[in-house]
Design a protein that fits this description.
Blueprint: E1 4-7, E2 10-13, H1 21-26, E3 31-34, H2 47-56, E4 60-63, H3 73-85, E5 90-93, H4 98-108, H5 114-123, H6 129-136, E6 148-155, H7 159-171, E7 177-180, E8 185-187, H8 192-196, E9 206-208, H9 209-212, E10 218-220, E11 224-228, E12 233-236, E13 241-249, E14 254-255, H10 263-266, E15 272-273, H11 281-290, E16 294-300, H12 310-324, E17 331-337, H13 349-359, E18 362-365, E19 367-373, E20 378-384, E21 390-396, E22 399-401, E23 406-407, H14 410-413, E24 439-441, H15 454-471, E25 478-480, E26 485-492, E27 495-501, H16 523-540, E28 552-554
Parallel strand pairs: 2-5, 3-4, 3-5, 6-7, 6-13, 7-10, 13-24, 15-22, 16-17, 16-22, 17-18
Antiparallel strand pairs: 1-2, 8-9, 11-12, 12-13, 14-23, 19-20, 20-21, 25-28, 26-27
Helix pairs in contact: 3-4, 7-15
Length: 555
Amino acid sequence: MEFKTLTPELSVSAQITAVDLPAIAQAGFRAVVCNRPDGEGGDQPVFDELAQAALALGLQTRYLPAESGKVSDEQGRQFGELLAQLPKPVLAFCRTGMRSTTMWALSQSGTLPLPQIIERSAGAGFDLKGVVRRLVNGGKTPVEVADATHEVVIVGGGAAGIAVAASLLARQPGLDIAVIDPADIHYYQPGWTLVGGGVFDASTTARTMASVLPRGVHWIKSAVAAFEPERNAVILDGCRVVKYKQLVVCPGLKLDWHGVEGLPETLGRNGVTSNYRYDLAPYTWKLVQGLRHGRAVFTQPPMPIKCAGAPQKAMYLSADQWRRAGVLRDVDIQFFNAGAVLFGVADYVPALMQYVRDYGIHLNFNQTLVSIDGPARRAVFCQTLPDGSKSLSTREFDMIHVVPPQKAPDFIRVSPLSDAAGWIDVDAATLRHKHFDNIFALGDAANTANAKTAAAARKQAPVVAYNVLSTRGQAKGEARYDGYGSCPLTVERGKIVLAEFGYGGKLAPSFPSWLIDGTRPSRLAWYLKERILPPLYWQGMLKGREWLAHPEMVG
C-alpha cells in the first residue's frame, strides 16, 4: 500500500481493500474518501464494504465518486468541503489516485498558486498538464494539441485488447501501437469459475499488465474519459489527449452491483458471494465447503452478461461438491433466471437438464433478483407473469451466488460510438464501427449478438487486426467474424458440456464429434478447460498465435 502525499493533511492512493484498512489506520490516517464509483473493475470492493470495515477501526469514510476523466468543478468544491470537515490526515483514493488528485487540484484553484498545485501533484507522481489546460481554457480541452500520437490506439488491456495488439504485431512487426488501460493487473477471468469450485487458486488467474503486454507496445496507464472521433482523438483521465490513425475499442463491460438493492452492503459476508469478482470467488468455495444443509440460491440477471453460462457453472460445481460430501439431499438448490430458458442454444439443454434432475435443482424462470437483505438472509425476486404483469416474492437463503446486472462502461454509453442501448455500434461481421471507418470494436462492449466470452474475443481479435491493416493499405480483402462463442459448462468436477456456437445459435464445434461431442458431458472437454485453455490463453491468444482462430477472408 503506497500513500502519496499532496499536503501534510492529505495523501492519495490507488484502490484499497478492507485488508488495507488496518495499515491505513496504523499510518495515522483518521478519514478515508472514496472517489471511485462502485463497479468499475472486477477486483474492486464496493464502498459499503470498506465503510463498515473502517468504522470498526475508528476511521471516518465519505463517498464522492467521479467517472474517470470527468471530475467536475462542483466535485472539486465538494472535495474541498470534505477536507475542511473531516479529521486529519485524510487518505483519498480512486483507481490510480488521479481522480483524487484532480479533485484536490480543483479545490485549491484560487487558494494555492497554480505552480504549487502542479509541483505537489508531480511530486506525488501525477501529471496534471491536462488539468492546467482545462483551468486556463475555461474548462475546455483543446484536442488540437496532443500529449501523444500513435498509428493504432487500443482502448482496453483485457483479453481482447492484448490479443488485438499481439495479432497486429504478428502481421506487421514494428507497428506503432499504444494500449490505454489504468490497471496494473491482467486477469484470466474464465478461471474464476474454477476458483469458486475449488479447482484453481485465485492467484493463478492474475498477472501483471506489464508482463502480458506485447513487446514494443506503448502502455498508456490511464483511463479514458471521452472520444472525439471527428478529430481522431481520445481524451484521458486528467484531460490529456491521445491522437490516432486507427482506433480499437475493447474496454469490457461494467458490473452493476448497485442494480440490486442492498447487494453492495452485504457482498463477501452473510453468505452472499459472486464468482464475477476476483476477491469473492474464493469466498464461494468457502461457503460451498461449509454448507451441510439449507438453501443455496443461484441467480442470473437479464441479458446481455459476460459468459451467460457462468451462473450455471457455479451451481453445478457446488452441487457436485455437496454430492461428493454426501449432503446433496440436505441442500435445497434454487436457480433464479431472468430469462425464459435454461440455455439459449437448445442443442445443449438436454444434457444440462439431466444434471438439473440429478442434482435436484429447482428452476425458476422469468425471475430477477431485485433486492437482498444479507443479515436477514432474504432475497426478493420480481417475476414476469405470462400476461406481462409482475409480482414480488421473497426467498430465504443460507448462501446465495449473485450475478449482477451488466452494462457498457459509463464512458462508452455516453460517447458518440454507442448505439441506443449504450453498446459500441459495429458491423457484426467486420467489427468496424458503422459511422467511423477507422474505428473498430470487439469484446464485451461491442453490440454484436455473440456470447460475451473470452473465446469470442479470441476469434474476433484476428478479424480486427486484419481489417485494421486493410484500412491502412497494408493488407488486401476483408476478414469476417461469424459470431463464434464458446461456453465450457462445468457440469461436474471432471466433466464439461462444451457449448460452441455462432450467430443465430448455429453450432460451431472445433473438434469432430468422435473426439468431443459438445452436446454431451465430456472428460476430454474438462481436460481442455483445466489444462489446455489457460496456457492457450497466456501463451497463444495473448502472444498473437492464432491457433484455431484464423479469420474467414472475403475478397
